[in-house]
Fold:
Amino acid sequence: MSETIALPVLGYNKTNGVQTFEEWAVSGTGTPSNDNWNMFVGWESVRPRLSPSMFGTLQDCLMKFMLRHRYQLKQKGYSSARETGTIGHAIIGSLHDGVGVSEALNAGRKATAKLLKDIAAEPDCRKSKEELEKSLLGDFALASVVAQLFWEKYKLPENFKTVATEVEVNMDLPGLATSLKCIMDRLMYDTQEKELWVADIKITGDDPVKFHSTAPFDPQTRMYRLAALAYLQSGKATVTTTLNGETVHAPLPKDTPVVGMVYEAIQRPTIRQKQKQSSEEWLAEAKSWYEGTHPTSTAGGPAAMPEPYWHRYEEPVLAYEFQVHLREADAACSGATRVHKFTRTKNTFLCRGGPGRAPCEFLPLCSARSPAEWAHIIPRLYVRDTAKSIELEIN
Ligand code: SF4
Structure:
């Protein structure tokens, strides 16, 4: 038999009653002057431009959104998954630009050298320069085989021309206080159908086919469409063709239809280059992993490098659901960072991580006894990543 118990009205009690903000916030140390997270982080929040990836963080955890995007905190040091993605993007982006494989690999080497310089320059970097170099060279080896094998396997249809790569578009929408920011990996023009497509590269630890099922309602799919339309309106979109043996850059009409998005999602191999293994041997081993014939690892196979997924837009540009998501994100980007608004997630699975999934980078802050301890934790474990675009500072 179940019974509903009526709790007595909780009386104010320092240990188990109703907790006041001051009690929660300081746990006996210091005196808060207002209920804004600024006082714990140590600086004022910023108002970021809204990018596609920010929707995911907002959905996962308001605290994470706030720490990463309103206070620009980034965990110090090195992350193999992140650095492999950056290097892979540099290589595949160059291949899309039309350069040869060796030049594209040089672009990857340059990206690796920049990461080494940036991470080594972080105060209190916990890896020695030699250790960091070794790890980044491993990431380069991984990214370069992924890029080369993908390039070998999939070519754009003949009638497609690359319009631009790494296109950054900043936009304002009526009714939103927050500007939008999108960086599109590639814009492609179908010369036969006279249509524009957006392409996105994803190097992931996850099953790449999963991206295909969520493509229609992914905020990224929707935002890239807006960005492509804005880019056309700017008049900068041109397509390069050859006419009578001469190269011609023709501007694309502003009313060119933006019809869809191509997801190029690839799984990172779970194997790594062995010591003393030549680049050719490593490429051959990675190839066997993607073909599903690797002698020891069964984690790969053709599903790890599926064909690019072509998603054709079917809904209006500003679909109702997208408008709701934009308004939610606008409020999170532009409102004051009040303590009661930006709370920790209710889904603590996201904090702990799991097999093949690292714990959240902000767990040391969230698991602190009190946010009053942040003043000691932040300088030790995080850097302020001010490279991100900032609209304006708010109180
Ligand atoms: S540790 Fe958990 S609560 Fe804290 S920011 Fe990360 S996901 Fe959010």
